[in-house]
Every structure is written in C-alpha cells, then in structure tokens.
Amino acid sequence: MELLVATHNQHKKEEIQQILQGLFEVKSLTDYDIHDEIIEDGHTFHENALIKAKYCFDKTGIPSLGDDSGLVVDALDGRPGIYSARYASNHDFPKNISKVLEELGNNTNRSAYFVTVLCYYSIEGPKYYEGRVYGNLLSENKGKQGFGYDPVFVPEGYELTFAEMEPEHKNRISHRKKALDAFLADMEQ
Fold first, then answer.
1. Of 33, 41, 68, 186, which residue is the catalytic one?
2. Which among 21, 88, 118, 173 is most buried, taking Cβ atoms within 10 Å?
C-alpha cells in the first residue's frame, strides 16, 4: 500500500521507511513533484499534522501521513514546541540549538522530551497517533548522526545523545518510532 508522507525532508522519509520495514511504499512530496509550501499555522502539534496530511490527501487522493514533531523543554515553559524547526532560524538547527541552550543558561533543570504527532488522513478522515521520548539536554553538541536537536538530547536510560547513536538504534527508541508503532497497531486491526 502506498503512503504519502507530507515532507520533503529526506532524513524523515528514510527514518519512516526504516521504521515501517517495507510494510508501506513510502513516498514524499518530492516523489510527487509537489513543491507548494504547506502553511503550518496550527497552534498545536495535532493541528499542524492535520494540515499537512489533509493537504496531501486533497491534492493526490492517496492516504497521507502528516507529522509534526518538536522538542518540549520543561524549564522553557514548553518552548520551542511547535516552533522547533524555526525557533531561531528556519531549519537552521545549529542556530536553533544555540538559542535553546542560551535560554537555558545554567539552569539545572535540563529535562525535555521529543514528541511526534502523526495524522493519518484517508477517505475516512483523520486519525492521530502520538509518541514521546523523555530525556535531558546537554550544554554542548555531541555526535554527528541524526538531525535537529539530536546532538544535545540524551534519552532517559542512555548516556549517548541521539546524534551519537547509530540511526538504527535511535529509530528503535525514538518518538517517531513510538507514534509509528501506534499507527501500525491500528492499521493491523
């Protein structure tokens, strides 16, 4: 079965493809030559995931998966949250990381979590799936793998950042994996 993922991000497409282990033929917006900017003007992860999934489904008629993910930092009252990708600069994660670390300063509360909300949109309408992974933020980058805030995020129970882990290992414990597992469990019913 074909599944259109509402992204141009090759990392995200590959991560989803790896997690779904060939159960779906994962396609991206690039594969469909859709280059319109999808305006994410929702106020929650759920609203933004719906905007993306519905846009893709309306455009192609193919069941679509919208994903909105972000980093939620307790000491920053939940920021960067839905603005994670454009917190300091649009998809410039070194700048985004710097802003988060600067705002945290010497705060000893470094707890944070990554969240992914998936919206699967088909002829039956939307369905939502959520995954979270809790951890702590370092004060400096470590590792070269992954993307986004991975170099400063250490998941609970681990000593390595997501960026220090092999992609296969990260993909077994990530927030996106947990949301996709919920999606797969629902699809198998």
1. 68
2. 118
